[in-house]
Specification:
By secondary structure, the chain is of the alpha/beta class. It has 11 helices and 15 strands. The strands form 4 sheets. The chain has a 7-stranded parallel sheet, sandwiched between helices. Strand 13 (268-271) and strand 14 form a beta hairpin. The structure holds NADP nicotinamide-adenine-dinucleotide phosphate and ligand G4F. NADP nicotinamide-adenine-dinucleotide phosphate binds next to helix 1 and strand 5.
């Protein structure tokens, strides 16, 4: 049987790298889009030792002509659209660029696929951020969306476009509604990595303290390596459907910090309230963490917790990595790297 060909947009990102590794193991030919520009940003592929095993195409996904050309050049079977302006905080400062990449690009893909004779399956990276200011304890595929940022509104547009094209043109297009997933390959701007890299550098005397925003926000954090398998499974079903992928547990940012300091055997105490809350190292009395208004968002998503029972039943998928192991994996990787 000829090898299947997968196109991954955003292969230089966290999920793109893990998914590429997963698909290579499944014997796919993996093509990845990467807007390399002037800098080299394939460190994740290098860490996973797959940088020479994937074909990278240098392009910005907002250039629709370049997308069309990829379909002319390669007989693509599956598209995983992971490229995005994925940082929620930035989306408040760059709402239009965020929407072009996150909302219009998926629509461009759907239009291109609609015009192909070949049957192409399409995976869209939807997000739990779409639930935003929800009213339920656990969010599933039937929970109403109430987006709280330009990032979330752009992803919601894409999400509904997928459903519309599926129903209107019978395209095999699905959205994975993934809750937060992290790893040692997570971008440093996201809270988990900001904490683990910051604490590692403090331990090694390379940084004084970490400044954070809302440490009471709660997230359902899973391991990215587990979640990419669910993406693939969604494209192997008979009928295209959307699925929530989560762990079903959540923790506050503060709990994440406490777990990380415990792993590092740092003796600490929280003092103060609100903007004056601080984490102090009780051995040397130095401030490790303090709160800075700058990191608060105009509108926040207070709490997310996913119900992944549909994925468990229909995809036979469940998360393998527990919260404590995830934090340990990230802390240890950052200690080693620094
Ligand atoms: P990430 O690490 O930020 O990766 C995003 C990727 O998109 C990067 O490779 C980035 O390239 C690329 N990209 C951005 N704009 C582009 C453009 N105009 N043209 C080409 N490539 C572009 O994100 P991730 O954590 O892997 O997430 C993957 C996808 O899942 C994203 O769509 C994200 O919104 C979604 N998602 C993530 C989570 C999560 O918790 N991780 C949860 C739900 C959904 P550069 O390296 O050049 O910037
Ligand atoms: O790590 P975060 O920036 O992730 P956020 O906003 O939940 O978004 C991530 O998960 C989404 C899935 O739900 C993805 F769709 C999205 O692409 C991205 O991967 O922030 C997590 C929480 C927020 O409540 C934020 O306000 O941490 C809070 N936080 C507090 N201080 C901070 C900080 N976040 C960051 N990044 N930096 C801080 O200093």
């Amino acid at each position: 049987m000829p090898k299947k060909i997968a196109l991954i947009t955003g292969i230089s990102g966290q999920d793109g790298a893990y998914l590429a590794k997963f698909l290579l193991k499944k014997n796919y030919i993996v093509i990845g889009t990467d807007r390399r520009s002037a800098r080299s940003n394939n460190w994740r592929l290098i860490e996973l030792k797959i940088d020479e095993k994937v074909i990278t195409v240098d392009l910005d996904v907002t250039e629709i002509n370049n997308l069309i050309r990829i379909f002319q050049k390669y007989q693509i079977d599956e598209v995983y659209n992971l490229a995005a302006q994925s940082f929620v905080k930035s989306s408040f400062e760059n709402p239009i660029q965020t929407s072009i990449v996150n909302a219009i690009t998926p629509l461009s893909f759907l239009e291109i696929i609609r015009c192909q004779k070949r049957k192409i399956k399409f995976y869209q990276a939807s997000t739990s951020e779409m639930f935003g200011k929800h009213m339920v304890k656990k969010q599933n595929e039937n929970t109403n969306f109430y987006p709280q940022s330009p990032y979330a509104t752009s992803k919601t547009f894409a999400h509904y476009s997928i459903r519309n094209y599926r129903e209107a043109y019978k395209i095999f297009a699905v959205s994975g509604i993934l809750f937060n997933h992290e790893s040692p390959l997570r971008g440093e701007e996201f809270i988990t990595r900001k904490i683990t890299i910051g604490l590692a550098k403090i331990m090694l005397g390379k940084q004084n303290k970490i400044k954070l925003g809302n440490i009471y926000a709660k997230r359902d954090w899973g391991f990215a390596g587990d979640y990419v398998e669910a993406m693939w499974k969604m494209l192997q079903t008979k009928k295209p459907k959307d699925y929530v992928i989560a762990t079903g547990q959540n923790h506050s940012v503060k709990e994440f910090i406490n777990e990380a300091t415990k792993i590092l055997k740092l003796k600490t105490i929280w003092v103060g309230k609100g903007l004056n809350e601080k984490l102090i190292n009780t051995d040397n009395k130095k401030i490790i963490i303090e709160i800075d208004k700058k990191y608060f968002r105009p509108t926040e998503v207070d709490s997310l917790k996913g119900d992944y029972s549909k994925a468990k039943k229909e995809l036979n998928w469940k998360p393998k990595t527990k919260f404590k192991n995830l934090v340990r994996m990230m802390v240890e990787a950052d200690l080693e790297r620094n």
